Amino acid sequence: MTPHNHAKAGDYAEAVLLPGDPLRAKWIAETFFDNPKLVNSVRNCLGYTGTWKGKPISVQASGMGQPSLSIYVHELINTYGAKTLIRVGTCGGLNAKVKVRDLVLAQGASTDSSIVKGRFGAFNFAPLADFGLLRAAADKAEAAGMRYHAGNMLSSDIFYHANGMAGYDTLPQHGVIGVEMEAAALYTLAARFDVRALTICTMTDCLITGEEIDAEQRQTSLRDMVTIALDVAVEA
Ligand code: HPA
Question: Which of 11, 33, 106, 233 could crosslink 153 through cysteines, CB 3.0-4.6 Å?
Answer without folding.
Answer: 106
